[in-house]
Design goal:
The complex is a heterodimer of chains A (924) and B (475). Chain A is an alpha/beta fold and 924 residues long. Chain A is built from 37 helices and 19 strands. In chain A, 51% of the residues lie in helices and 11% in strands. Classes of the chains: A alpha/beta (924), B mainly beta (475).
Chain lengths: 924, 475
């Protein structure tokens, strides 16, 4: 026979207590004894308990008591029921069991006599079908896992096992039915865990002692989770429940694991906590970050407490093998990590590391039209998006066009040095001397691409077309709502002559700017049009990305600054904070690039230069080329390729309703073309200004494009007109893609370059020694110095060797004898390398130089060595402030990143749900 | 204005006008096509010259630096243990050396280097070495080519001297009439700094009747010269130009005697060589000897006596595969003497011949050819003693050869040939003949580019030199 004592613990819970008590008393299998415990409630809970169980069956506890303490107090006083199997049924004041709950629980206890602990299936108090938990387990991170999806409705899907019984690691203490002898044997719930995870700890110990813990799915209870959801104030501790939950999670884990496993888990959780802290900071949830740190800290800094707890659980650790299989599988950890990334991306912030006390998540605010799809399959959702389809298509076009550039030797040519070396070389270069800051950007990217610089450069340069298409599609999401128009706009943008020209001539600087330009447009729109906080964040983001773009192509900054000033003049008076935000956006690059920009101011010609090797462009670019947004040079299509775009944009001027916006677009385009004219006449490739012009034209046309849909619906000859417009509009990207593929992305960029540095010279150069590379050019000779390795990207921008050095090289090449070779050796030149075609005069000159000896001479290259003393070149003087500046720059980038990062979108519930002190309610 | 904006086509019109204006701006600002500025090489005086007279024993060595305005400098002539220093440009230094003298290094710096020329001429009237044998003192180099009779046709001695501070690793490649000779002893010769050596080519390749010889060093530099003693006479083989698709063999004198052309194709493929003679009345292909077929790696000969003898000439060879060429000049008389000339570069920067004489017996001829364009040169004589005669101006019409009999002081003189600005390329040679009992003595020397000037190419520091092709601007 069973004897059941129901223990109802109340703490400011009169809101739910009435229902709870009614449910307890109405059980089909009535409880044998009922005891109420009141943890110092101030809302009349005590009276309710008294009404239900009789005044003498209510135990009064101090307000600060925890749940476990309360139960211990009752059990201590409870006389044994002779002869029966005695059970204790723990009921929270906010947990109403179904009328048949006890019946089913006891039935299960009869079926499985070895069972020590049973628990009902918990559903939500308000949303009565919502499943909270059917038994719980724990992850190795201490996270409490229910194994349920977020917001899962109970349709019996977890009841599948025979007789509605599941073996679980633990059940919640709400509705937990415990055999009294086991309670006594295990010394009950641990009073050192006053609020959370006491149930997990107890069940763990029960399991380890060889008992069974069952979740009985036929038995149902509705639980309000009042403490965990902060529906009431906790009196047992002053800390935030989240912090408590996290701390006790870790504590339970550390107390119960065997020693070595515990050490490993401790290490793992410490690292994990630090990472999470950073993520919380980035997501601007400092409260979470503090909780995370405090939780791990309280475990780490109280080893004695842990030791005491471990001592008490000696027995439970011996049964670890019984518990271990019940842990959540490691695959779940990956799922959590993925969810975390998703959350971060969708603005939800990293997830709660403690695990919900139950499975309910706050209903996430669904964002954006594309997120409202009801098909949840990740792949299906992904590939249904036109943006992804466009990206895949553009990637296919790029692969088809760049088929010769994808594999082979070194990638280089045009403005791109043969890409060699790895991320470490770039970092060493950037931190070692005053390198241009885009080296740091490439170093970061190379680090991400497993240290392979060539991969990072390939993605940026060869992937310029699909990436810019994607960025154009995504960035215009907020203001171009008509999706076909966005697809057209993104495709046209990605296949502009500028893009194909960028790829063919290896202009990685323009490539980066081209990819970022739509993002600039989007962020600038936010800065001008959004509300205060998002606008401020957008301003920081724009500032950071502008710094990146400016590092690659300084001319960008000039354009943006001019446009920004115009915007400040036109919007500054209208919207508050626009001026400040523009100042942030334009000031951040100055701050982040400081000293480097100062060197540019010293030498203003460099504004026109972009990242990579200097590569001039013809100043005679045809006017029709400029007007058709074609920057000329290798890889650009014939000028008619963009005719469709221009025709559509001109046609859009006839739409009365959109005349103004299209005219503004044309205004931007004309300003861009004028700027391109100026830049082009200065022998600079006008890619960046023409991209600006095209962006203006494309965006304004796309904004008016939904009218085409109206025409189509109108039918008749308007429908034919719409069809014609679409045909003309799409002619531009289709023609550009076709021409590009046919042209095989032909240009100076190649993938079959050999290392310019002979292997012997590379192997035998000592630190500080260089190899003089002399190459026959159109007229005369050109030279450069390789310092013991192939120069990394950006090294070409270091200070020139000067005219003395050039004269010495000329003298050496002329074979006039004299001290030229000695002078070069005095500047650290140990080898002279001449690649084919080798000018016979040069060969004779080098051969006849008494202080040089020939190492090799083949059809492909010749190499000579200095036989005299080579004075290693002095390493550049270590400027003291430079190191400090690098630290400062890194710190600044982090700060700007944090300021620009999207915060969690849901407002922190604390502020909204603060309950006035005089209305404090309920417990546990 | 308001009506314009309200009109449906008003905005379009405005934009089109703006576009027209932009077109106008772009059109007007378009610069005229600029002719690409070609930086020309700059002439610079040579600052240091080092040259080696390979076997001065018993020969007269001449060293001279033409007068110039290049400041100070000095020439160091390592005559035995007592180096002689000369620091006066325009002054001939001449000395007949004792037999058995080691190779002599002549080293000049500063103004004295500019145009330094040295030569050795040996004259023997009796014995196996009867004849005039002269050679221009050679620059140490990594690569030298010689064409002439082979070891089977006489004694061929290769004189090697390493005057550098680094050891030299010398390899020889011999091409014969039958193809390249594979020889064990052709490689692996190591000359320590300061070492000199005479190699009997018979020991390297005993069989070739005609040969082309390539002396190259794997490392270091060596001064190489070949002395040929054949039954027809003795002389030194002048260094010839490297294998090229067009070779000019200048300096064929207008005197009597046999002329034999050697052509070698050291490459991998057979050569069909077109032969043309540039004579004093024009440039001709010789009848029945328009082409020579030279199998790959072999040497062919062609007797040019009937076409060229008695006329001053230069031979122009063109071929699709690179060739080297030389020419044998045989003197007249009962006991003949030979002289050799060989492929030579044009003397765009001028040329200096150290040794020339003009007596009752000795005739010095200067043969100048302009195979391509009309040329004009100034010929100046630098006498060993006495006042220098006035410079002679010589005009050579296009595709013609001119011969100049040099009349100068009997004691000997040097010759400076300077092309005038705007002159076409000039090739030339100097031939000395001496009437002697038993037969004429003869020696020849193709004009080499003077060490006066060098062309300093335009050089620019250009980071893009790391790329394999130079950047060119599409216009």
């Amino acid at each position: 026979m069973h004897s059941v004592t129901a223990i109802v613990v109340a703490h400011d819970g009169s809101r739910w207590l009435r229902d709870t008590l009614r449910a307890v008393l109405a059980q089909t299998r009535p409880v044998d004894r009922g005891v109420g415990v009141d943890n110092g409630s101030r809302d009349g809970s005590r009276d309710l308990l008294g009404e239900a169980f009789g005044k003498h069956s209510v135990v009064q506890m101090p307000r600060s008591s925890g749940f476990a303490e309360a139960v211990h107090e009752v059990v201590r006083r409870l006389p044994k029921a002779p002869g029966d199997t005695e059970w204790i049924w723990l009921i929270h004041d906010d947990c109403a069991p179904d009328v048949r709950a006890l019946e089913f629980l006891l039935h299960a206890a009869d079926e499985y006599p070895e069972t020590a602990v049973l628990g009902p299936k918990l559903r939500d108090w308000l949303d009565r079908k919502l499943l909270l938990e059917v038994g719980v387990t724990v992850a190795r991170s201490g996270r409490r896992e229910t194994g349920l999806e977020a917001r899962e409705y109970d349709q019996g899907q977890h009841d599948a096992e025979p007789r509605g019984v599941r073996d679980v690691l633990a059940v919640s203490s709400a509705g937990m039915l415990i055999r009294r002898d086991v309670w006594d044997e295990l010394d009950g719930l641990d009073a050192r865990l006053p609020l959370f995870r006491d149930d997990l700890d107890f069940c763990w110990r029960a399991r380890a002692a060889g008992h069974r813990v069952l979740a009985v799915t036929a038995a149902v209870a509705w639980h309000a989770e009042a403490s965990a959801k902060r529906r009431r104030r906790i009196a047992a501790s002053d800390d935030h429940p989240r912090r408590l939950a996290r701390r006790y999670s870790l504590f339970v884990l550390m107390a119960n694991l065997p020693f070595w496993t515990m050490l490993w888990s401790l290490l793992r959780n410490t690292v994990g906590s630090l990472i999470r802290t950073v993520l919380f900071l980035v997501a601007k949830q400092p409260a979470h970050a503090v909780d995370e740190l405090a939780a791990i800290g309280s475990v780490l800094f109280h080893p004695l407490r842990l030791r005491r707890a471990r001592k008490a659980r000696k027995a439970s650790r011996r049964g670890y093998q019984l518990v271990k299989p019940m842990f959540s599988p490691p695959s779940l950890a990956f799922r959590r990590a993925w969810e975390m990334v998703q959350n971060q991306l969708s603005g939800g912030g990293p997830m709660d590391s403690a695990g919900r006390h139950h499975a309910v998540q706050q209903p996430g605010a669904e964002e954006g039209d594309e997120l409202l799809n009801d098909d949840d399959g990740f792949l299906r959702r992904t590939f249904a998006s036109p943006g992804v389809r466009l990206f895949v298509l553009l990637t296919a076009v790029a692969v088809a066009a760049e088929r010769d550039l994808l594999t082979g030797g070194l990638l280089g040519g045009g403005a791109l040095v043969p890409v060699a070396g790895g991320a470490s070389d770039l970092w060493a270069f950037y931190t070692g001397e005053q390198a241009p800051p885009y080296v740091a950007v490439l170093a970061v990217l190379s680090t991400i691409t497993f240290g392979k610089t060539w991969l990072a450069v390939s993605i940026l340069l060869l992937g310029c077309v699909p990436l810019s298409g994607l960025s154009a599609y995504l960035a215009t999401r907020s203001f171009v709502t008509y999706r076909p128009a966005r697809v057209w706009m993104a495709a046209t943008y990605a296949l502009l002559p500028v893009a194909t020209g960028v790829v063919a001539s290896g202009r990685i600087g323009s490539a980066v700017v081209f990819i970022l330009l739509p993002v600039y447009a989007s962020l600038a729109t936010k800065v001008l049009a959004d509300t205060r906080k998002p606008a401020r964040r957008a301003a920081w983001g724009l500032g950071l990305l502008l710094a990146v773009g400016t590092a690659f192509a300084p001319i960008l900054y000039v354009f943006v600054a001019v446009l920004g000033l115009l915007a400040a003049v036109s919007f500054g008076g209208v919207r508050r904070g626009v001026g400040g935000n523009l100042l942030i956006a334009l000031g951040a690059p100055l701050l982040l690039l400081g000293p480097w920009l100062a060197t540019i101011v010293h030498d203003p010609v460099r504004i026109l230069r972009e990242a990579g090797l200097p590569m001039t462009s013809s100043p005679r670019l045809a006017p029709e080329s400029l007007l058709t947004l074609n920057p000329g040079g290798p890889g650009t299509p014939p000028i008619w390729a963009t005719a469709g775009l221009l025709a559509v944009a001109l046609g859009a001027l006839l739409l009365r309703r959109h005349q103004f916006i299209v005219a503004v677009g044309w205004g931007v385009a004309i300003v861009g073309v004028l700027a391109a004219t100026v830049v082009s006449r200065m022998s600079t490739w006008p890619g960046v200004p023409l991209a600006f012009a095209a962006t203006g034209l494309l965006v304004s046309t796309a904004l008016a494009a939904h009218r085409v849909a109206e025409f189509r619906r109108a039918g008749g000859f308007r429908r034919a007109g719409a069809f014609l417009i679409v045909l003309v509009a799409f002619a531009t990207p289709v023609a550009a893609a076709t021409l590009w593929i046919m042209d095989e992305a032909g240009g100076p960029v190649r993938r079959d370059l050999r290392s310019p540095l002979p292997a012997i010279a590379e192997a035998q150069s000592k630190p500080g020694q260089g190899t003089l590379l002399i190459r026959a050019a159109d007229a005369g000779l050109t030279y450069t110095v390789l310092r013991g390795r192939i120069p990394v990207i950006g090294e070409s921008e270091r200070a020139a060797y000067g005219s003395d050095f050039t004269d010495a090289v000329a003298g050496l090449a002329s074979g006039r004898g004299g001290s030229d070779a000695a002078e070069l050796a005095g500047r650290g030149i140990a080898f002279v390398s001449v690649p084919a075609p080798i000018d016979p005069a040069l060969r004779r000159a080098l051969d006849s130089e008494p202080t040089m000896a020939r190492v090799t001479l083949t059809d492909r290259a010749g190499l000579w060595r200095m036989t005299g003393t080579v004075t290693p070149e002095r390493p550049p003087a270590d400027v003291a402030w430079h190191r400090w500046w690098l630290y400062g720059q890194g710190a600044l980038v982090v700060v700007v990143l944090i300021l620009a990062a999207p915060g969690a979108r849901t407002a922190e519930p604390e502020a909204a749900e603060e309950i006035p002190a005089d209305r404090e309610r309920v417990a546990v | 204005m308001r009506r314009l904006i309200e009109n449906r086509f008003g905005m379009l019109a405005l934009v089109l006008i703006a576009l027209g204006a932009v077109y106008g701006v772009a059109f007007a600002s378009r610069p005229a096509p600029a002719a690409p500025v070609r930086a020309e090489p700059v002439r610079a005086p040579i600052a240091a010259v080092s040259t080696v007279c390979p076997d001065p024993g018993g020969a007269m060595v001449t060293a001279v630096t033409p007068p110039n305005s290049g400041g100070t400098g000095q020439t160091l002539i390592e005559d035995g243990d007592e180096p002689v220093t000369v620091d006066e440009p325009g002054k001939l230094w001449q000395k007949t050396m004792a037999a058995g003298t080691d190779p002599m290094r002549v080293h000049a710096t500063g103004a004295m280097a500019s145009g330094l020329e040295a030569a050795q001429t040996r004259r023997a009237l009796t014995g196996a070495a009867r004849g005039l044998a002269g050679v221009r003192c050679v620059d140490p180099g990594a690569d030298a080519w010689f064409v002439g009779p082979g070891p089977a046709a006489g004694d061929l001695k290769l004189h090697l001297a390493n005057v550098e501070s680094a050891p030299a690793d010398v390899a020889l490649v011999v091409y014969s009439g039958e193809g390249q000779v594979i020889a064990d002893r052709a490689s692996g010769m190591l000359l320590k700094p300061g070492e000199h050596r005479v190699v009997d080519l018979k020991k390297v390749a005993p069989s070739p009747l005609v040969m082309a010889l390539n002396v190259s060093t794997g490392r270091g530099r060596v001064a190489a010269a070949v002395e040929a003693a054949t039954p027809e006479g003795v002389d030194w083989l002048p260094q010839t130009t490297r294998p090229a698709e067009r070779v000019v063999v200048p300096g064929v004198p207008g005197s009597a005697g046999r002329r034999e052309l050697y052509v070698a194709a050291p490459g991998e493929s057979d050569a069909v060589v077109h032969v043309k003679a540039v004579l004093k009345d024009g440039s001709y292909a010789l009848e029945n000897r328009e082409t020579v077929e030279v199998p790959a790696g072999s040497v062919a000969t062609l007797d040019l006596s009937t076409g060229v003898t008695g006329q001053p000439a230069a031979i122009v060879l063109t071929s699709e595969t690179p060739v080297v060429a030389g020419l044998k000049i045989v003197g007249t008389g009962g006991r003949t003497d030979v002289a050799f000339t060989a492929g030579a570069p044009s003397i765009d920067l001028g040329s200096v011949v150290a040794d020339a004489r003009s007596t009752k017996e000795v005739t010095s001829r200067l043969i100048l050819s302009a195979p391509d364009k009309a040329a004009e040169v100034t010929v100046t004589l630098l006498p060993r003693e006495g006042k220098a005669p006035d410079p002679i101006e010589v005009a050579i019409p296009a595709a013609r050869t001119k011969e100049l009999i040099l009349k100068g002081p009997a004691k000997g003189f040097s010759v400076v040939v300077t092309p005038k600005t705007g002159s076409g390329p000039v090739y030339g040679g100097r031939v000395m003949e001496e009437r002697a009992a038993g037969g004429q003595l003869v020696t020849a020397q193709p004009l080499a580019v003077a060490r006066t000037w060098t062309l300093v190419p335009p050089v620019a520091e250009e980071p893009s030199a790391v790329l394999s092709q130079p950047l060119s601007q599409p216009s």
